[in-house]
Specification:
The protein is α/β, with parallel strands linked by helices. The protein has four helices and seven strands. About 35% of the residues lie in helices and about 30% in strands.
């Protein structure tokens, strides 16, 4: 029998098997595709991916969240920090999202206006190709 410290609420700890993060190029943008659950177990993987792509010198980073089936508060914090970091580095960060799971989490958290949201990756890439990096989150007016 395993010690109780090996379990959380009766289930074994898992190391983020439910999150998949990949990246491709589309024009001048880096498109980061995210699928699965973004929770306290998987958020670090997303954080590392976004930080890496933002600091890689890409002028535009598009995060495709249409494959996300759960977005917890830790995931929202990772996205917010990525937006702040991108703005500080002069990188335009855009979110492509149409799913209710993600839009509801952004709405409920009050973070919707903190991001450049788009209905598709193509729209986000097109906007990013012709736009410049938005103001840092801390400098935006409500």
């Amino acid at each position: 029998m395993k010690a109780s410290s090996d379990k959380l609420y009766g289930t074994p700890y898992e190391s983020a098997p439910s999150l998949r993060v990949g990246a491709t190029r589309s024009g001048s943008a880096t498109v980061v595709t995210v699928a699965g659950e973004i929770d306290m177990y998987s958020a670090r993987e997303l954080e590392l991916a976004l930080t890496g792509h933002v600091s890689s010198g890409a002028g535009v980073v598009v995060v495709d969240l249409d494959g996300v089936s759960f977005l917890g508060s830790v995931g929202l914090a990772v996205l917010h920090q990525a937006a702040v970091g991108a703005a500080d580095q002069g990188v335009a960060l855009h979110l492509a999202v149409t799913t209710k799971v993600v839009t509801r989490a952004l709405d409920v958290s009050g973070l919707t206006q903190e991001f450049s949201l788009h209905r598709s990756v193509q729209e986000a890439v097109a906007h990013g190709d012709r736009g410049r990096a938005p103001l840092p989150v801390s400098e935006r007016r409500s």
